Amino acid sequence: MEELQSNYRELRGWRHDWRNHMQALKVYVDEGDLDKASDYIVQMGEAFERVAQTVKSGNAMADAIINSKLSLAREKGIAVDATFRVPEVLPVSDVEFCVLFGNLMDNAIESCLTIPEKEKRFIRIYISTFQEQFYLSISNATAKTTRTLTYFSRKGKGHGFGMTNIDSVVKHHKGYLNRSNEPGVFQTELMIPYE
User: Fold this and answer.
1) Is 155 in the same domain as 72?
2) Is the same domain home to 151 and 69?
3) CB atoms within 10 A of CB 15
4) What average pLDDT does range 169-194 have in this prediction?
């Protein structure tokens, strides 16, 4: 969590320095040194990509974990279709949100990576408020072609706590959790009421 908060602060700092970057570029352009201007733009792009943010909801911790996982999925060549309406205040703690979203995304990414690269790897994410409840849905591609009614980890000893931890958070908040799969697609959806 400290790393994610650090990334968020870095992005805010980068935005703060934006005017200075534009001034430096203006100097190069005014002097006619387009090579230096071009190099500077490349450097700015590389720096920005390291901290680029695709979600800005107003909830710094949620934004940080979401953007971190989205970046990881895209680095792995997974198509991400996401709709985020993250409330500024969540009915779960920052730690619990990290447990929920982090584990769901880790599982979705891992599942996508079992599919050959030439096939469609995807993750669909929807976060919003629905009927005075926090709603989160993640669907992802899977190599499984048969329907399953029970879900467990195949990672071996010392692994597989993610689903149990998700279940515990949802149960603690008296929420709703549903996992389902159809051939080629796995989905988890959960709702947690605001108390």
Assistant:
1) yes
2) yes
3) 12
4) 95
